[in-house]
Amino acid sequence: MRKWKFFIVIFCLFITSGCWDSIEIEERGFVIGVGVDLNEETEDEGPLSLSQQFVIPTESSQGGSGEGGSGDAFQNIVSSGNTIFETVRRVAARTNRSPFYEHIKLIVVSEELAKSDHFPDILDYFLRYPEMRRGTQIMVTPEKAGDILEITPKNEKLPAIYIKSISKNNYKNARMVPPTRIGKIHENLLGDDSYMIQMIVKLNPEEVKISGQAVFNGYTDKLVGFIEEDATEGVNFITGELKGGLLEAKVKDEIVVYEMDKVKTDIEPVYEKGKIKFNVTIKTTGTIPESYKSFDLLDEEEINQTEEAIKDKIHEFTKLAIKKVRDDLKTDIFGFSQKFRVKYPNEWEDMKNDWDIGENYFQQSEIEVNVNTVVDRSGTIIRSSLEE
Predict the structure, then answer these.
(1) If DSSP codes are grouped into helix, strand and coil, which group holds residue 6?
(2) 262 lies in the same domain as 213
(3) Are the C-beta atoms of residues 294 and 387 closer than 8 Å to each other?
(4) Model pLDDT for residues 96-150, shown as the tens digit of each residue
(5) Which domain range does residue 363 map to?
(6) For the chain, what percentages of helix, strand and coil (3-state, to nearest 5) are there?
(7) Which of 61, 193, 324, 332 has the fewest beta carbons under 10 Å from its own?
(8) Is-contact 342 291, C-beta < 8 A?
(9) pTM to 2 decimals?
């Protein structure tokens, strides 16, 4: 009897040991980007259309190229269904490599889909999928998401990698918001906080542009609208998300370029006599790397004029942002709700369900912006080369 037990144990160890469910790497279909649209062509197949960008390893590593429209380094496969789960499974019947999502870099969602009831369910799928990483970036386009993945950039074989690289340049461009991770969106959804996602548009068959941002209401989990580049720069000043970049101002009708080294924003909520006010203080420090004006930066008066011109420009951007966000979209992407709930927790309990929906206390709030700009003489030009 003991011998039989021994053999049974050995047999169980034999059949359950090792990588019994493993898939060889050459049999995996590495998906690095997906685009999700509403299915407009064949409604019978389901309302959702999923474009998946598969890597072709041999081509991408041995000189294959995505240039000239060849698309040799990648393959985009489009499928439809009632759910994302169904669209993914349908692809398995059309490719010899099983879709694998652990290396996915990018999710692009169309405007129509982001405004529909399907959007929260799609986010839920990607958040729950075991192979999905929370660092995966997500973008929104007013165009067709599948078309964004069809570009053939000249300096990169894989469109998804090219797009992700552009999205990280926000530290050089004040008109870009930081890349949006799907994990960060999950945090916003849990707290009912409104949020923004980078907006992407297709310029031509070879190029895309990160242009402005898409605004989502945290209560409805739906897209409420887009913000253009000028207003986006103002939003970045107010939220404190600005990591650098250039700003052009005019001093006596001549252009001066201000390179921001440090930007700090403080938001102070004030609640008195039933009225809500937010005092926003923006402090910047930077240098003048380029100027089309003849002036001497050692002259205190010239410095003051330049700082005032830069301050006025920042005020211009923030006014655009406030009008677009508070007055038009009526959605708090400034993060004011977080500041208010910390300072006034009791009042927040009465307002939280009507903050930027219903009564919309956010829309009724007053926003005052104060700007303090410093031109750092260290590293700047001393006298303009245009000076005679």
Answers:
(1) helix
(2) no
(3) yes
(4) 777 788 888 999 999 999 999 888 888 888 888 877 788 889 999 999 999 999 9
(5) 231-375
(6) 35, 30, 30
(7) 61
(8) no
(9) 0.82
